[in-house]
Amino acid sequence: MEATTFQASSLLSPAHRNSTSAAAPRGISFCGLHKHVVTVKTPFAKVSCAQRTQKYDKTISYSSWRVMASANTENGTPPSFDYDVIIIGAGVGGHGAALHAVEKGLKTAIIEGDVVGGTCVNRGCVPSKALLAVSGRMRELQDSNHLKALGIKVTEAGYERQAVADHANNLALRIRGNLTNSMNALGVDVLTGVGTLVGPQTVKYGKIGYPDKIVSAQYIIIATGSVPFVPPGIEVDGKTVFTSDHALKLEWVPDWIAIVGSGYIGLEFSDVYTALGSEVTFIEALDTLMPGFDPEITKLAQRVLINPRKIDYHTGVLAKKITPAKEGRPVQIELIDTKTKEPKETLEVFDDSDLFLFRVLDHES
Ligand SMILES: Cc1cc2nc3c(=O)[nH]c(=O)nc-3n(C[C@H](O)[C@H](O)[C@H](O)COP(=O)(O)OP(=O)(O)OC[C@H]3O[C@@H](n4cnc5c(N)ncnc54)[C@H](O)[C@@H]3O)c2cc1C
Hints:
Elements: H1 2-7, H2 14-18, E1 28-30, E2 38-41, E3 46-47, H3 52-69, E4 83-88, H4 92-103, E5 108-112, H5 118-123, H6 125-142, H7 144-150, H8 161-185, E6 189-192, E7 194-199, E8 202-207, E9 210-222, E10 227-228, H9 244-247, E11 256-260, H10 264-275, E12 279-284, H11 295-306, E13 311-315, E14 317-323, E15 331-337, E16 343-349, E17 363-364
Parallel strand pairs: 4-5, 4-9, 5-6, 11-12, 12-13
Antiparallel strand pairs: 1-2, 2-3, 7-8, 8-9, 10-17, 14-15, 15-16
The chain binds flavin-adenine dinucleotide.
InterPro entries: Class-I_Pyr_Nuc-Dis_Oxidored, FAD/NAD-bd_sf, FAD/NAD-binding_dom, Pyr_OxRdtase_I_AS
Family: Belongs to the class-I pyridine nucleotide-disulfide oxidoreductase family.
Keywords: Disulfide bond, FAD, Flavoprotein, Oxidoreductase, Redox-active center
């Protein structure tokens, strides 16, 4: 790596060599995720995107030289690193950071412990919007008055649960592939494994419990994102009590779902599941639904997304304890008053009548 780094200086003008600015060298343009990934024009090289790999490496090295020159050791020799930047976590945050680093000419690696795309692509924005697209169509097809006014006849609107789930999953897979390809095309090394900082500029990565590879970088960006937040007292069994990660898989559509938290994620799930036939009960700790929204938007959402649908709600209550259904016992949700902490009521669902209780927890960073 060190050798590659210093080859670069032969490409530099004296002004570039002395530059300490973070800006990309003049003549290097970054064309994003399009077919032509990057174009490099220097007095020394004119490189098309198709020929990119070899010469582009040299261009990256230019900045490597600059970064390392500003980090000389006491005896004046530059320290050597495998990369200018290592990013831990390849969610949308890490991916954006990787693109930006490459744009600035930095030699970049990204370490991912699970799947590229993180929450947004695999368990968040993308599959939830795919399901919302289905729920929107379902509502249109169920709106017989509107259809009649348009002169359209639909005998019965229906859906295939597995096909809907596959649609969301396939979209996530496609976008995950695009993200990976875009990073490969730009020369970002995508390293697989869980990363752990073992020094200020060193990361170990590999299988959980057995990280066996070490890489170093001048800069390390931590972009490890979020996981579902499950408050104490709540037992998740993945079947009768579960998080948004499970709910997106649409493994079944229950008659009734209790959603804890009426933020935008809870609201999206209420939209999807009510369109597919479920009834929803929101449990909200604060005094109003959607407490984090702009009040005007809350009013509109209440009128359009809550009131006309099979949705009821308990506000000002905390779900203190939730116990999944087991051994013939129903799912139980114990509610307490948020302010006084006094017990309020217990909701129970017996699953012998084909009713299940689901819980969708908002994510928390
Ligand atoms: C249901 C749902 C719907 C959403 N809808 C939207 C929306 O419409 N719009 C919006 O803006 N946001 C939405 N979000 C929020 C959005 O998903 C997150 O804000 C976003 O994913 C955060 O991106 P991130 O890259 O910071 O973290 P993450 O996406 O969580 O990515 C972090 C990555 O780091 C990896 N990682 C963690 N630790 C390590 C380690 N030690 N070593 C290696 N890798 C590691 C993880 O495996 C993961 O891939 C939604 C979230 C959910 C749950």
